[in-house]
Amino acid sequence: MLETLINPKKAERKPWEMFFVGFVYAAIAILLANFLFLNNVALKPYTSLFVLIFTVMFSLPFMYYIIKLEEKKEEKMSSERGILKEHGKAIMALVFLFIGFVAAFSVIYLALPADVANTNFESQIRTFCMVNNRGSIEECVNSVTGKSYLTVHSIKQGMSYVSSILATNLTVFVNCLIFSLIFGAGAIFILAWNASVISAAIGIFARDSSYGLFGGFTRYMVHGIPEIAGFFVAALAGGIIGAAVIRHKVEKRKFLHILHDSMDLIIIGIVILILAAFIEVFLTPVLAGFL
Q1: Among candidates 109, 110, 96, which has minimal Cα distance to 229?
Q2: Rounded to two decimals, what is the model's pTM?
Q3: Which end of the chain is more exposed for a tag (fewer CB within 10 A), N or C?
Q4: Ordered DSSP codes for 10-77
């Protein structure tokens, strides 16, 4: 039933509606995971993973059909100038879906008692703390809720941070590309996982910050939204190539055209990630400094 909530063509006409779809999917995923596993002694420690699994299950049909729709568009496109115009609509729909995930996870994290919230996002909190080298969970939480943030003292240091962030994001970018190439809608797993990790960080910050969710979103989503847009570009490119391989013989001119346009999408995605890395290093700390 949930997979029929909205179709790709309607989503492209009104991409903002995907925010509400993502919110509903993520909220129901948490409710189901808690109802089925929170009181199960054996499965309770894996509740956070079941939240992710249910979110992905709900999103797979939409992701699959939107990739098929974009591949069909490629067949009709006669000019490269239409790449961003046509695929941009799908990317916006997916970005709003992602923001819906983040909003639902963050709001529910704050609404739940602290111990239940930590159970629902245990894997995500541990992942966030490991990536940011913040020691124990307690030290990590204190660091997130405190005033500390990435500080740039020179252009050289800033460029070093940009290179490090970009290297990490390019790894995720390549994973999205490969997942979509092998299994058209597979990238939604990586993207839903990233949404839940970001939401855990936002929730931790907002719980003990006077700025609440607004502060958390400013801290993590100013650069997070373009990052995710870049990842979705990779997901679309991989999915389009995979669908084209199935529908066309490799030697056909149409396939080469689709492959060429997909490579353009990949380049666009990398440029977006570069921009996001600069925003994270040079803009987000300025905004975070006011929080």
Answers
A1: 96
A2: 0.83
A3: N
A4: HHHHSTTHHHHHHHHHHHHHHHHHHHHHTT-TTTGGGHHHHHHHHHHHHHHHHHHHHHHHHHHHHHH-
Cβ within 8 Å of residue 70, ≥6 positions away: 86, 87, 90, 236, 239, 240
Number of independent structural domains in the chain: 1
pLDDT digits (tens, 9 = 90+) for 90-120: 888 889 999 999 999 999 999 999 889 888 9
Question: What 3-state DSSP class applies to 263?
Answer: helix
Whether residue 50 contacts residue 37, with contact meaning beta carbons closer than 8 Å, is answered with: yes
Rounded CA Rg of the chain: 19
Question: Contact at 8 Å (CB) between 261 and 80?
Answer: yes
Torsion angle of the four alpha carbons 221, 225, 228, 232, in this order, in degrees rounded to the nearest 10: 160
pLDDT value at position 146? 46
- Structural domain containing residue 102: 2-288
Spatial distance between the Cα atoms of 209 and 216, rounded to a whole number of angstroms: 9
